[in-house]
Amino acid sequence: MFKEIKRDAYLQRLIDKKENGLIKVITGIRRCGKSYLLFYLYHDYLISQGIDEEQIIQIPLDDDLFVQYRNPQQLSQYIRSKIIDGKMNYIFIDEVQYAISKEELRNSNEIRLYNVLNGLLRLRNVDIYVTGSNSKLLTKDVLTAFRGRGDEVRVYPLSFKEYYTFVGGDKSDAYEEYALYGGMPLVLSKKNDINKTQYLQSLFDEVYFKDINERYEIELKDVLEELTDDLCSSIGSLTNASKIARTLQSVKNVKVSSNTVSKYLDYLVESFLFNVAKRYDIKGKKYFEYPSKYYCTDVGLRNARLNFRQQEETHIMENIIYNELLCRGYSVDVGVVEIVKTNDGKRTKSQVEIDFVVNAGSKRYYIQSALNVSDEDKMNTELRPLKNTNDFFRKIIVSKTSMKPWNDEDGILHLGLYDFLLNENSLDL
């Protein structure tokens, strides 16, 4: 019997945005569950609310049967022919980037699809939902293109909580499996390790690289792959285009300019394969232009790309925490704290790092990811930057421990990894 994967948080976000007069733009890496969310979970919700099947117009543009509707004019004609007068019509367009040509991508001021969607939006009995797997098309430009009438819902691979809700059993066993194979939904249907590995590895060649190569007409395909490998092997490390270009030259003997690397980095981020965390000077209240940290959208994809050769538990845990914070809708940066000391009349300055500066509206949290803090020296190292922020925002250490949450004498919250991942309100304990 089919067991449904719960994506309750995303479903609720769509429900909250229902019939709000805006185009709902559902974004995220391919195969993370956008279509499932819209065409199954949200579809079934609408049906449960008394909406007739004929009121839901579904167009999956990555389906061969709907190829002709990649032409915006034909898409518009098809949708308008299906609209029922006197009733609300719910329009679902899947992988909408297929309706945007390469030529239009180069000149984003003339994208016909945007005019089609804006035209449909003028109809009072239409509620529009589109999914897409390219952020350049669907996040950076969307608010401008839709004249402020675009409303984004970002979808990620399964969080650990979503994963654990599905698999159950021992938390630590589930986490170890999750840290190895990640949260791409279809992984859960694979029966053994070989099938899981093959599926994750095939996604890069058959889906992600193929999409990027076709969309951007990549000339140096080997550089794109080497760059991906480099980012996967150095998650949570500070880097920039120049540094990567030098690494590719010295280690791989691949000659490439930093401009090309920078361009390819943008493509990987725009395809949602990686996310960027910028460095933020906490006391100076400013961002550093570079270097930045890159995290994999899914640790299973990262591990598979490296043939499961690099299983650094510390970095994988840090990546999982970062992804969890994004899933909760937070803005996440890397914190830099300057510490000034005076010895024998001499002032010295040093910089220490806080793993994550987490913002949500007026709230801010400082979070350290620490695999093990049983050693006193290690604990002091993690506490030092938190104690030197000179402000009163919440400070948290997340460690792989079974201890209950507790606050130390400095008001710093010590939180176990499973408590953090499974309780969406854990930062406010």
Q: How much helical structure, as a percent, in the residues?
A: 40-55%
- Could you tell me the mean pLDDT? 92
Which residue ranges are poorly predicted, with pLDDT under 50 across at least 5 consecutive positions? none
CATH class of the domain at 8-154: Alpha Beta
Q: How much strand?
A: 15-25%
CATH topology assignment of the domain at 8-154: Rossmann fold
Given the structure, what is the number of helices?
17
Shape: globular
Please compute the radius of gyration using only Cα atoms.
23 Å
Order of strands, main sheet, comes to 9-8-11-12-13-14-16-15
- What is the terminal separation in angstroms? 38 Å
Can you put this structure into words, describing what you see?
The protein is α/β, with parallel strands linked by helices. The chain has a domain of 147 residues: Rossmann fold. Helix content is 42%, strand content 21%. It contains 17 helices and 16 strands. The strands form 3 sheets. It has an 8-stranded mixed beta sheet. Strands 2-3-4-1-5 form a 5-stranded parallel beta sheet, sandwiched between helices. Strands 6-10-7 form a 3-stranded antiparallel beta sheet. Helix 9 packs across helix 14, helix 10 packs across helix 14 and helix 11 packs across helix 13. It is globular and about 80 Å long.
Summarize this entry quickly.
By secondary structure, this protein is of the alpha/beta class. It has helices at residues 8-17, 34-48, 72-82, 102-106, 112-121, 135-140, 142-145, 160-167, 171-181, 193-216, 221-233, 241-252, 258-270, 299-305, 313-327, 376-387, 417-422, and strands at 23-27, 56-60, 89-94, 126-132, 150-154, 238-239, 274-277, 279-281, 286-287, 292-296, 331-343, 346-360, 363-370, 394-399, 406-407, 413-416.
